[in-house]
Design a protein that fits this description.
Elements lengths: L1 E6 L5 E2 L2 E2 H14 L4 E12 L4 H18 L2 E10 L7 E10 L16 E4 L5 H11 L15 H10 L5 E3 L5 H13 L2 E5 L7 H10 L13 E4 L4 H10 L7 E7 L6 E4 L5 E4 L12
Parallel strand pairs: 4-5, 9-12
Antiparallel strand pairs: 1-6, 2-3, 4-6, 7-10, 7-11, 8-10, 9-11, 12-13
Helix pairs in contact: 1-2, 4-7
Length: 286
């Protein structure tokens, strides 16, 4: 498996992480969502003239620590500098290579009616951590980004169920955009349960202040798993035994009705259609 992604998050340092750590985690997670075991990463830096070397060194050290923690190697890289004003401090590209185990075939088109949909923990944390810094919001408890390498959690899932149908990390566009992509790829319907979606009170409050729907807010340390119903209990138990899945929950199921669409049963018992995010709700969030 091979993946590449670029990172332009602003600010470059935020509660719970920085652009370097997120660049490592993001590419590791892209590989892991294919069921691959990430092995090697490359990195490319675009630096704005005037970026303090202390900041650059801090980011490089953060990337090294993140790679070590994820069990991957940063094996090559490149650095370019552009004139002041032609970039915003630092942009990073990472590319990664991993190995998909024999018998593992994970892709959105494999979702089937009856499958259970799980999320590994509280959603919308990363996006709100970034926006709270930008908007100068303060809360009784600091909202820190949940950016994390998910390859260990994926390995724990595959150990109890090699027939996982879909894995996705709901980054840009959040949970509902990812679920819409899955529904359209597999030509199935999705029914989510609003009351089952784990969201912290701090994130709910911040979303109300900012006028955001947490279901569309970016995540960097969470995954969505779509698994056969017979394996759901075992997968959920495995997720909850992992440090990154302690708050995992079943949030819905794949259905044969309304193929290509995602609906949500609300807390008051009604049903509404939730669609893919149109445009960029939170620019430069990753």
């Amino acid at each position: 498996a091979f993946s590449t992604d670029s990172y332009v998050v602003s600010p470059i340092f935020f509660p719970g992480g920085d652009i370097g750590k997120m660049a490592v985690h993001g590419t590791v997670n892209d590989l892991a969502m294919c069921g691959a075991r990430p092995l090697y990463l490359s990195v490319g830096f675009i630096l704005e003239e005037g970026l303090p070397m202390e900041d650059f060194w801090r980011i490089v050290q953060s990337m090294r620590a993140a790679a070590d923690e994820a069990g991957v190697q940063l094996v090559t890289g490149d650095t370019k500098v552009v004139d002041r004003g032609k970039a915003d401090k630092i942009f990073i590209n990472t590319a990664g290579i991993g190995v998909v185990p024999a018998g593992v075939d994970i892709q959105p088109a494999h979702a089937q009616a009856g499958d259970k949909i799980m999320v590994s923990g509280q959603i919308a944390v990363h996006g709100i951590a970034i926006m709270s810094v930008r908007e100068g919001l303060e809360f009784e408890t600091e909202i820190a980004s949940d950016t994390a390498a998910l390859n260990g959690l994926v390995q724990a899932i595959l150990e109890v169920c090699s027939d996982v149908h879909v894995l996705r990390d709901p980054t840009r566009g959040g949970v509902t955009s990812v679920m819409t992509e899955i529904a359209q790829s597999a030509n199935v319907g999705v029914l989510l349960q609003e009351a089952a979606v784990p969201i912290s009170e701090e994130v709910k409050g911040a979303c109300e202040i900012l006028g955001l729907d947490p279901l569309y807010v970016a995540n960097e340390g969470k995954l969505i798993a779509v698994v056969p119903p017979a394996a759901a209990d075992a997968v959920l138990a495995a997720m909850r035994q992992h440090p990154l899945g302690k708050e995992a929950a079943v949030i819905g199921e794949v259905v044969s009705d309304h193929p290509g669409f995602v609906t949500m049963k609300t807390r008051v018992g009604g049903t509404r259609v939730v669609d893919m995010l149109s445009g960029e709700q939170l620019p430069r969030i990753c």
